[in-house]
Specification:
Elements lengths: L1 E3 L5 E2 L4 E4 L4 E5 L3 E2 L13 E3 L54 H9 L4 H8 L12 H26 L7 E7 L10 E5 L2 E10 L2 E7 L7 E5 L2 E5 L1 E7 L4 E7 L4 H4 L1 E3 L3 E2 L5 E9 L2 E7 L6 E5 L2 E5 L1 E10 L1
Helix pairs in contact: 2-3
Length: 320
């Protein structure tokens, strides 16, 4: 069955929709609740375009479903409830702001107008949340705001990359599950009979670094506060190693001592930058993270995190 794509509708993997704006059909890759600024034509991690020769002969409009907190379905807008997000415009510069930097009037506009609905839907669709039950309401809103802004930026990077805008030897693109773009993703090493790639994801207010592989349960893992976290939706680093190099270092990272510009990595929830590390552990090279606050490279491994004192940082070939 195919439907006309409609914001506010819960979609599931395999669903086929017709997008009226460009006249093409798309097949759902990742279940989610549709919203206005995530059209199928601009969200490569959520929708795959159906080739013209496979176009359905007809399409039907989807039915709305009631919300179920366990099944994560969508609740249609009702009087006094959350609307679908229509009428709420968020400028790309505003998305760079922390939730706590917005004034109370703007926060209320975003809440009432549905500006946080996309983030809440993402959490329901499988984006990991860290101890959400222990957080206050304002902290949950801040997490949701940060999550949806990360996804919005990741979608834009992915679309630019797929459209041929490849001005850097390294680019982060959004990815889902075990379907690794093996011909594009940067390889770090091999463990047993699987290949390890570099990933990152929004988690607990920061963007944490880790490793991805088709061998993993959900596709990617990050290390956080001593634990290994499985993730189904993440960014993966693609690029060309001819324009990159691994620079050896030890202990707490001194960026100036690298002599080369590090590739953009992630950040802790306090703003501390995280850099892409490669560390040798138990006969394999593993992706991980390094920073001026960590005693070495931290890699997710065997359900936890390992600290490796001597490691390498991924840098551009140009000197600083």
């Amino acid at each position: 069955m195919s439907n006309e794509w409609t914001p506010g509708t819960q979609y599931h993997p395999g669903d086929v929709v017709f997008y009226q704006a460009d006249g093409h059909y798309y097949k759902n890759i990742q279940g989610h609740v549709a919203q206005n600024d995530w059209p199928p034509s601009n969200t490569a991690a959520l929708w795959g375009r159906v080739p013209d020769h496979e176009r359905p002969q007809h399409h039907e409009r989807p039915q709305q479903r009631p919300y179920d907190s366990e099944k994560h379905d969508y609740i249609p807008p009702t009087q006094g409830g959350l609307p679908s997000g229509e009428g709420v415009n968020v400028h790309h510069e505003e998305r760079k702001k922390n939730w706590y930097d917005l004034d109370d009037h703007r926060k209320k506009e975003l809440e009432i107008g549905g500006g946080l609905l996309g983030g809440a839907a993402l959490l329901a669709a499988g984006y990991a949340a860290y101890k959400s039950h222990e957080k206050g309401e304002e902290e949950k809103k801040a997490q949701t705001w940060g999550l949806q802004n990360w996804v919005h930026a990741a979608e834009a990077r992915t679309q630019d990359y797929r459209n041929g805008a490849r001005n850097s030897p390294a680019t982060w693109i959004l990815n889902h599950g075990k379907n690794i773009p093996e011909n594009e993703a940067i390889v770090v090493g091999r463990e047993k009979d699987w290949t390890l790639y570099i990933c990152r994801a929004f988690y607990d207010g920061g963007i944490q670094l880790g490793k991805a592989s088709p061998a993993f349960q959900k596709g990617a893992v990050i290390g956080y506060k001593g634990e290994e976290v499985q993730l189904p939706t993440y960014e993966i680093l693609v690029g060309d190693m001819n324009g990159l190099r691994w620079v050896n270092t030890h202990g707490r990272l001194n960026v100036a001592s690298l002599e080369y510009q590090p590739v953009e990595g992630g950040e802790e929830n306090d703003g501390t930058p995280l850099y892409i590390a490669k560390a040798h552990h138990r006969s394999a090279d593993h992706p991980g993270k390094a920073s001026p606050k960590l005693d070495g490279a931290y890699i997710p491994y065997d359900g936890g995190e390992e600290c490796v004192k001597s490691y390498s940082v991924l840098c551009y070939n140009q000197r600083q």
